[in-house]
Amino acid sequence: MSFGWQRIVQWTPDLSAAGTANRPEIKATCNGSDALSSATVVAIIVPDALKMDVGEARLRAGETGALPLMLDVYSSSGAGVADLAFELNFPASIAAALSTLRDGLGSPRTGLKFWTPALRSSYARPMKSTSSKLNLFRPTHNLTAPTIALSNIVLCLLSLSAFSIRSAEVPDGIWVRPGFKLTVAENTIKAPRFMAVNPEGVLFVSVPKSGQIQACRDKDRDGYYENVVTYVDGHDPKNILQGLAWHDGWLWFAEISAIFKSRDTNGDGRADEVIKVIGEDKLPITGGGHRWRALLIHKGRIYTHVGDQTNATDEPIDANERKKIWTFALDGSDKQLFATGLRNTEKFAIRPDTEEIWGVDHDIDMLGWELEGKEKKFGQPITDHNPPAELNHYKKGGFYGHPYIVGKNIPNFNFLKNPDLAELAAKTTIPEWTMAAHCSGNGMIFYHGKQIPNGRGDAFVAMRGSWNATQKSGYCLARILFEDGHPYGEQKMVSFLKGGTEIIGRPADCLEAPDGSILISDDTGNKIYRLSYAGK
Predict the structure, then answer these.
(1) What's the CA gap between 254 and 245, in Å, rounded?
(2) Which pLDDT score, from 0 to 100, does residue 374 have?
(3) Which residue among 22, 23, 44, 258 has the highest number of C-beta atoms inside a 10 angstrom radius?
(4) What are phi and psi of 121, to 5 degrees?
(5) Cα first-last separation, the chain
(6) Contact 407, 387 (CB under 8 A)
(7) Quick one: three-class SS letters along 15-64?
(8) For the residues of 153-182, what is the DSSP string, one character each?
């Protein structure tokens, strides 16, 4: 089968005015009626979710390898220039290299050209420029023959490097509180967990499963992070890189037995200076269980915590380093014990206009096992509803009950033979607020912005959901209402549980974006959502 070719757009941008992005960006907008369908063209893959009927598609250069510097537009309707709009930003560092390129027609190649239509089967072959960083494709035919029809518009990057496309829509079945809207802010990172943002609006996302931190940029401020690069790489996934904190020009991050700080000194978007501030000698952790290290940098101190090695380990408080909050000076010295009796608090937050440290602590599993295990025909009527998850205000010297006291001074039924339960209850600081049992509150923030009406000072909690309940619990973003420094109510803002049974997403963390919207990471749905106030 042979195909003819017809050029419909030829665009040579002025590279002298190109932006300073770390990777090229291509934005394509179509106002026509054709839909962009999923397709695979030779080695060029268009993801299934890509749809042009939403009005816009985004394509981004991969993190490594070739840079995609040519775009094909194939059209079934013969869409004219009036129906298509394109813009391209190249890093200034590669502008000179681009001027040396030549396309298949022999003309100088200083920008982007668009052709239509047909398949690419024998259309391109590799061509390398004088820059080792560029690996392009060029036409091998005289592209002057008449056009042929295709069933859909297809956009393809003429490069084998990885790319991502703004394509995902919010899945059906997600409930959003009236007056708010939910959009997808990023959908290329696999298993995103915790997040941090710097003053320039760069979003950092930890990916424990790959031992990476991704840096995301929304350069056109449209709410979608179209530029994603690997900021930190090469960490062993077994060490669980999760906790993040931005402080004084450095991105701090935590693993199970180490705390690092990092920065990008040459402006390429990647951390080229990574310093281990605290190592295993000061953060000795053994055993499995809850291995997520929390991290907070506040008032010249580091605050950190790792949870219980089992569901509820019966051992003396001073038996090991876990289930405690430790604090250090910023250079890793001056280790001090701050608080004890935590089960698993994965993130700390400072309440606005105070120095107060707060966090959500996971409740234990199988509270009623001693009773329910003997009469299994009754199911787990105790465990299904107890104990609650806790929103705690952590104070220096405080004891928060775990593993012996749960909720508001209720003894752990599995340790009723402990002779010191009454004394332990008397010492316990009860939670400021309790949430549904097994909701698995992970990340939390206090709201500082103005976009959400009356939101300043309220807490937002990402509830990932837990296995230990007959009826599913959590799987939502909740708002904890505050007044006079104390919580008094709770609202569900977004629910990822369709019909009470179908799990559509599992929120791992939440973060206030610079515009006052709330970002929500979903480490099973591989998305970062944005919750914005839309008005009444």
Answers:
(1) 9
(2) 78
(3) 23
(4) -55, -45
(5) 57
(6) yes
(7) HHHCCCCCCCEEEEEECCCCCECCEEECCEEECCCCCCCCCEEEEECCCC
(8) BEEEESSSS--EES---PPTT-EE-TTEEE
Mean pLDDT value across residues 129-157? 27
At 398, which amino acid appears? G
Q: Which has more pLDDT, 419 or 84? A: 419
DSSP symbol at 167: -
N residues, the chain: 536
Instruction: Identify residue 535 by its one-letter amino acid code.
Output: G
**Cross-strand partners of 520:** 510, 529
Contacts of 299 (CB under 8 A, 6+ apart): 355
Q: Position of tokens 């009723």? A: 416
Three-class DSSP category at 453: coil
Provide mean pLDDT across the span 5-27.
33
Residue 424 contacts residue 401 (beta carbons within 8 Å): yes
Q: What's the whole-model pTM score?
A: 0.72
- Does residue 201 contact residue 218 with C-beta atoms inside 8 Å? yes
User: Tell me, what's the pLDDT at 507?
Assistant: 97
- Indicate whether 200 pLDDT > 60: yes
What is the separation of C-alpha 123 from the centre of its chain, rounded to a whole number of angstroms? 38
pLDDT (0 to 100) of residue 317? 80
Tokens of 220: 């056109």
What is the rounded distance in angstroms from the CA atom of residue 160 to the CA atom of residue 158?
7
pLDDT reported for residue 479: 98
For 177, the token pair is: 């509180």
Angle at 419 between CA 415 and CA 421, to 5 degrees: 65
CA distance 214 to 192: 9
Reading the block at residue 349, the tokens are 């937050």
